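#structure-requests
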Amino acid sequence: MADKKFQILSLDGGGIKGLFSAAVLAHWENDLKISIREHFDLILGTSTGGIIAIGLGLGLHPREIVNFYVNKGKSIFGNKRTNLFRNKYAQEPLKEALRDPNCFGDRLFGESSNRLVIPSYNIGDDGVYLFKTAHHDRLGRDFKVPAWKVALATSAAPTYFPACTEIDHIRHIDGGVWANNPSMIGVVEAISFLGISLEQIRILSLGTTDQVVHRPENLNRGGLWQWKKQAIQVALRGQSMGVNAQISLLLGEDNVLRVDPKVPDQLFELDKLSEKDLLSKAASFSRSVVPLFKNKFMDHKADPFEPEHKL
C-alpha cells in the first residue's frame, strides 16, 4: 500500500447534534450518487459519532441514521430527571433504540465492512479505552461484542447517562471525555497498526456544529460556581481545535477537511432535538462544502476490508 492513499473519516461527539453529521453525509451521498463508506479505509467516531461510524460499518446509509435520530431522539432524551445527584436520563431508552432491528439489532461489532475505531473511557481503571475491529492480528476480542454495546459504551456521557457496564462489567463512559474529535487517533492507528505513512493519509473530520460563545469576564477569577457550565465546553472545544491543528501540521492542510460550521451560542444543545434547525443547517452547509469533498475524497475507493479474525 506504499503508494496508495489512505482515507480516514472522523466523526465528533455531540449528543443529538449527530443528526447534523448524519444529514451532511446523507446529502453528499444523494448529490454524488455514492456510498460514503466505500471511500474510506478507516472510520472513527466518538459518542454520537461512534453510533454513526458503527452504523456506516454495518451497512446503514446516512439517511437511515438520520431517521434513527429523528424517530428515537425524543424517547432517548424525553424524560429528564430533576435529581441533581443522578444522571439526567435513563439508559434503557437509548439501549432499546440501539437494539432495534432497524438500527443495530443483535449484529456484532465485527460484522462491520469497514475498519472501525471507537473511543470510550474506563472509569474503573481510570484509563482510555478503544474498541477496534479485527484489522490487526493483535485485535482479537472487540469484534465479538454486540455493536449496540459498543455504541452504548462510547455514548455514556457523564451526568447525562449512567456508565455502561454491559461489556465484561467494565465501567465505560463517553469517549468524548478525552477524544471528542478522534482524528489524531486515526492517524496513530493508520501508522502504528496498518503501516501507513503520513504522506498517504487524508482525513475528513466532521463536527456537530461549533458554537460561538462569549466567555464572561467573571471566569478570570471564577470558582466552581462560575465554571460549572463552562468547563466542559471549554475542554471539549479545546481538545477538538488542538487535534485539528495538529493533524493539519502533520498531514498538510491540503490533506485535511474539517467540516464544523459556527453557529450562535445555545442554538443547539446536546440533548435537545432541534430537528428542523439541524436539518436546515446540514442542508445548506453540505451544499457549500460538497465540491471540497468531491475534489479531496472522491478519487479514492477503499479496498474491501478483510478482518484478521473471522466470526
